[in-house]
Amino acid sequence: MHELSGSQTAFTLESKGLGVFPTVKKARVLWSGIHGDVDRLATLQSDLDKRLAGIGFVPDNRNFKGHLTLGRVKGRIDGKTLASAITACGSFASASWAVERLVLFKSDLKPTGAVYSELFAADLAIGAPEDRSQRPDAGERI
Fold it and tell me: Who is most buried in 59, 67, 119, 127, counting CB within 10 A?
């Protein structure tokens, strides 16, 4: 993550809309979709996957679809009620935010809810990509 962060610059994202995993009838997770510079996010995810594969991690074969988990569902929720709520709030949109760091979190699911612990963080590079080509250490890092 540290090596990759130095070759990437900050970018902007926002969240829009609401949805659930896996289905409305069997909802377990409420999420909001990621919009904005999603191509940069997808490239970052792909580059990280490739680097991790190089040290033995098995890449995820599913297509990357960025989202924010807003909550987890405990118990059962009526599918029609949930679908109505999602429709009513479907135009939700957040303010945009700058993505300036990569953070690795550990997620422990407990009966009282998820507990997240930061394991590592690395700042993204400052400046435009062309600025990086002028640095003495601008070569590919692995």
Answer: 67
